Amino acid sequence: MPRAADLRLVSCPPPKHFPEMVRLSRELFRLIVDEYRTEGALRRLSDPKWFQSLACLLGYERDTSGSTTVVTAALREALNPEEHGLALVGGKGRLGLKTPELVRERAEELGVDPEPLIEASRLAAKSDTVCLQDGHELYHHTIAFDESGRWVVIQQGMNTEERTARRYHWSWEDTESFTERHPVAASAPADVLSLQGDEPSGCRRAILDLVSEGPDRVLREWRRVRASIRGPLDRFIDADRGVEVPEEVLRRLPRRLDREVLERLYERDPESFTDLLRTRGVGPSLTRALALIAEVVHGEGPDYRDPAEYTLAFGCKSGDPFPVDRELMSLASELLERLDSRLLRRFLRAAQS
């Protein structure tokens, strides 16, 4: 299943010790790949807690949005296909949008087919914007992959009102349909609409049935739904009428549906929800509307619960508990560069016995 970590949203320049982060990352992953191969390295990157521990080791705060953007930037420079058998591409804003182009470049160096990687990148991004609508808008997207076509997507969304960020991790070995559910920490309903996981599977099937009946049927039902939806206070007025929708979902309810996209879906006639996600023009608003139609018409609603998860060798950029010791970080990198990993493992085993 995909996993997620909640962070504080911050705005700050890259740290002064960024070159040391790159150098240390390069040597750390050389040892990880030598010991656990590229598969083990990717498996570690797919773990939010391990990734946050890496951020701390590289001198970054444990709970800020910058730990994602800066650490992935360091890995993008550090990982060399020829040396590590790994590549990481993508990033913030325009760099994230260039991911398909960058995947093709690095895939050629690794001798791997880029198209499945590009598809995984697009569908993971689509799932966390269309299937999961949790108030965090994606602004950062990266994908790491190896010569065998294994991959991990690390992407992050922001909620500017709440000043929070959420990092999402997807991996090749936990993903089948891109509707797998993030772990859920909150037990109470929240302002979230989710079509991920088993609980809303009936809703996903109902949506596929709706789009297969053509634009006229969908638009007709949408007009009925808009007339029947109640707000969060309407329960005190008439509890026997309508369907209750969380306030945040209600506030983001689309006023109109794009007939052209509905016609495109009808012509495509998607056999699975993943196939629906592949359709050009299918975004959060249309999916939210279709989910609400499915809930009102068929009694098959989405999930309204909130996903989340989570967690100093050289100090920290913020100076807490102490500033980054750049000289010490460089010395550690130099030690790793000089030590053959087999000798290092032998030394570590001897130290443990």
| Portion in helices | 40-55%
Tell me the radius of gyration. 23 Å
SSE sequence, one letter per element: EHHHHEHHHEEEEEHHHHHHEHH
Mean pLDDT: 83
Structural class: alpha+beta
Tally of distinct domains: 2
Main sheet record: 5 strands, antiparallel
* Major β-sheet strand ordering: 1-6-5-4-2
Would you mind describing this structure in some detail?
The chain is about 50% helix and about 15% strand. It is α+β, with helices and mostly antiparallel strands and about 350 residues long. The protein folds into two domains: about 5-185 and about 310-350, no CATH class; about 200-300, no CATH class. The strands form two sheets. The chain has a five-stranded antiparallel beta sheet, sandwiched between helices. Helix 1 (about 20-45) packs across helix 3, helix 6 runs antiparallel to helix 7 and helix 9 packs across helix 13 (about 285-300).
Name the features.
353 residues, three-stranded antiparallel β-sheet, 50% helix, elongated
List the helices and strands and how they pair.
Blueprint: E1 3-8, H1 18-45, H2 48-57, H3 66-78, H4 81-84, E2 86-92, H5 94-97, H6 99-110, H7 114-131, E3 132-133, E4 137-146, E5 151-159, E6 164-171, E7 184-194, H8 201-212, H9 215-228, H10 247-251, H11 259-268, H12 273-278, H13 284-298, E8 303-307, H14 326-338, H15 341-352
Antiparallel strand pairs: 1-6, 2-4, 3-7, 4-5, 5-6, 7-8
Helix pairs in contact: 1-3, 1-14, 6-7, 8-13, 9-13
